[in-house]
From TrEMBL:
Function, as annotated: GTPase that plays an essential role in the late steps of ribosome biogenesis.
Phylogenetic placement of the source organism: Bacteria, Pseudomonadati, Bacteroidota, Flavobacteriia, Flavobacteriales
GO biological process: ribosome biogenesis
Self-association state and partner proteins as the record states: Associates with the 50S ribosomal subunit.
GO molecular-function terms, A-Z: GTP binding; ribosome binding
Gene3D superfamilies: 3.30.300.20, P-loop containing nucleotide triphosphate hydrolases
Residue ranges annotated for the EngA-type G domain, each copy included: 3-167, 174-349
SUPFAM superfamilies: P-loop containing nucleoside triphosphate hydrolases
Protein name in the entry: GTPase Der
InterPro entries: G_ENGA, GTP-bd, GTPase_Der, KH_dom-like, KH_dom-like_a/b, P-loop_NTPase, Small_GTP-bd
Residues the entry annotates as binding GTP 2: 180-187, 227-231, 292-295
Positions contributing to GTP 1 binding: 9-16, 56-60, 119-122
Length: 433
């Protein structure tokens, strides 16, 4: 993982247009390979061989105009805390506004790389107009047009220069990230897990002391806990901001192999928990769902079975995920949680020998071949698992474009039925042979 880039700016400057252009350029490539799902506010892009995550911070802000003014401070604050580089977007059509000046004032104090992006520079006349943005006191700017793409290359050249290089982990230890909303019990869980008072636990969200990746040797397992501080760093940001938990989770998730997604049993698997879940899924990370504070739940009103069922409805079709009911404060099933995370880690690394894969899958496919489309029959000839960090399977066939999602899901389910891929997203794609 090579860096997080946040796009900040007031509404209507063109942040989402820019974001979509960046993501689509890549999606076009990625989609063909692995069928990655789209997200409106978070995506991956790359330039000159360097990959980075792009976050459209504005995409998370909803509300009326005066809400925007307050939200924009939070956007910028979060971007400063979490991103490796910040793109501050302004609009040449509108010129400098008061809100732009406010953001610029915040950014001038920041040490991280900041790129002032003057958008909507669609033609040469507007290039001249852009000069006024020197007045923001942020130095040089990058004029571009998110609509026609001109100028984006220059920006990206400069951007990738300041982004960190891909980290190659020194050791092959599983990397676990504990993620979830504020107050889900993440620090309590880690505390229970490592059995020392390394972390201060309080009732107030986000007061936990900073920490970086730490290596543990507990219960006979060795693993690294990833960037928990990124999730729990002290911040003035209001805890119920959807953006908060998502952005805080991005880095931890990207750095991990397996995410332990904690939720407060009394609050449920709500929209914000779901966002974090899909973020992990889209990043192809292993997932273990930990329903925490189970000690607080009246067992008469909600059984494990019903609770599990409800979560599965929400995470469908990716339901092959372990769901455990724990209590961090009572240290209930803490060991089981780590044991399960290690299993999921192993599942994610699982490689099925080609021979075994074909011996099993070809007869299944013969029994239930892909449905014919426009009178054409798809013939799948062989299957292979790719040498990637998470399970990806290529099915070689005559007419890859005719195989639709329901059939791909059927293939995935068959693979899951015969091999243990619990907790692990997988990609199925068709290739021409
Ligand atoms: P956001 O609120 O910052 O995410 O802004 P949007 O991406 O929704 O864009 C706001 C408006 O500006 C839309 O009508 C876009 O079509 C328009 N827009 C965005 N980029 C450009 C550009 O490069 N040139 C022009 N002329 N318009 C643009
Ligand atoms: P974080 O923000 O996700 O790190 O959450 P904390 O670990 O700070 O926990 C938030 C609050 O929930 C604290 O008051 C904890 O004592 C409480 N808490 C955490 N885990 C449990 C649990 O398993 N059961 C109960 N009853 N309370 C818990």
């Amino acid at each position: 993982m090579a860096g997080i880039v946040a796009v900040v700016g007031r509404p209507n400057v063109g942040k989402s247009t820019f974001f979509n252009r960046m993501i689509q350029r890549r999606e076009a490539i990625v989609d063909a390979v692995s069928g990655v799902t789209r997200d409106r506010h978070y995506g991956k892009s790359d330039w000159a061989g360097k990959e980075f995550s792009l976050i459209d911070t504005g995409g998370y802000v909803v509300g009326s105009d005066d809400v925007f003014e307050k939200e924009i401070d939070k956007q910028v604050e979060l971007a400063i805390a979490e991103a490796d580089a910040i793109l501050f977007m302004v609009d040449v059509e509108a010129g400098i506004t008061g809100m732009d000046e406010d953001v610029a004032r915040l950014l001038r104090k920041v040490e991280k790389p900041i790129f002032l992006v003057v958008n909507k520079v669609d033609n040469a006349a507007r290039l001249e107009d852009a000069v006024e943005f020197y007045n923001l006191g942020l130095g040089d700017y990058y004029p571009l047009s998110s609509i026609n793409g001109s100028g984006t290359g220059e920006l990206l050249d400069a951007l990738v220069k300041v982004l960190p290089d891909e980290e190659i982990p020194e050791e092959n230890l599983p990397r676990f990230a504990v993620v979830g909303r504020p107050n889900a019990g993440k620090s309590s869980f880690i505390n229970a897990l490592i059995g020392e008072d390394r972390y201060i636990v309080t009732d107030i969200a986000g007061t936990t002391r900073d920490s970086i990746d730490t290596r543990y040797n507990r219960f006979g397992f060795e693993f690294n806990l990833v960037d928990t501080a990124g999730i729990r760093r002290k911040s003035k940001v209001k805890e119920d901001l959807e953006f908060y938990s998502v952005m805080r989770s991005v880095r931890a998730i990207e750095h991990s192999d397996v995410c332990l997604l904690l939720l407060d049993a009394t609050r449920g698997f709500d929209g914000q928990v779901q966002n974090i879940f899909w973020l992990a899924e889209r990043n192809n990370k292993g997932i273990v769902i930990l329903v925490n504070k189970w000690d607080k739940v009246e067992k008469e009103t909600a059984s494990v079975k019903e609770y599990t069922q409800k979560i599965k409805e929400v995470i469908a079709p990716f339901t092959d995920v372990p769901i455990l009911f724990i209590s961090a404060t009572n240290k209930q099933r803490i060991y089981k949680a780590i044991e399960t995370a290690v299993e999921v880690y192993n599942n994610r690394s699982r490689r099925i020998p080609t021979r075994k894969l074909n011996d099993l899958m070809l007869p299944i496919i013969e029994n239930r071949p892909p449905p014919a489309t426009k009178g054409k029959y798809v013939k799948i000839k062989f299957i292979t698992q790719l040498p990637t960090p998470y399970p990806q399977f290529a099915f070689f066939c005559n007419l890859p474009q005719y195989v639709k999602d329901p059939y791909k899901r059927f293939l995935e389910n068959q693979l899951r039925k015969h091999f243990d891929f619990t907790g692990v997203p997988m990609s199925i794609f068709m290739r021409k042979k």
